[in-house]
Amino acid sequence: MSLPRSCFAILILSAGLVSANAADAFYVGTWKIVSATPAPWADAERKPDLDEGKALNGQTVIIGAKKIEGPHQVACADPKYKVKIYPVNMLFQGQFEEMKSRDKSVDVSKAAARAGFKNGTKWTTLETGCETEVDFHFIDSTTAAFGLNNVIYTLKKQ
Prior knowledge:
Strand content: 25-35%
Shape: globular
Order of helices and strands: HEHEEEHHEEEE
Distance between the termini: 50 Å
Low-confidence stretches: 1-21
Mean pLDDT: 87
Structural class: alpha+beta
Strand order of the largest sheet: 3-2-1-8-7-6-5-4
């Protein structure tokens, strides 16, 4: 059974629209790593890799519709993007929640505020689905952050 030409054309156009929407996504663009600071959960057991932080600071990350270019720690040839809304306890793969489980006196909202997440209780997160397991958490429309080796990297959209 074959599809009528009009149905086939609609399918092709629909596929093009999906790709165009992905290309127009808010996260697509050039981002610069502007800071690398020890994560609030870093401690004697979870030491931040400040040498890596120095090496990555100032680097450019290009989040494209079909790949992420930049330092090998974030580069990804075939991302499987999912945009989600995360409460504070889910940011950085649950590190704030883990902090609280180790020390019940920790106020995760205050810890998140020290990491730049000051306004609100939920933030947009881009899950990349990449082997690097790096997700981008958006503080606002021009500022994002990711965690790596007990360091929080802040990026600014260029």
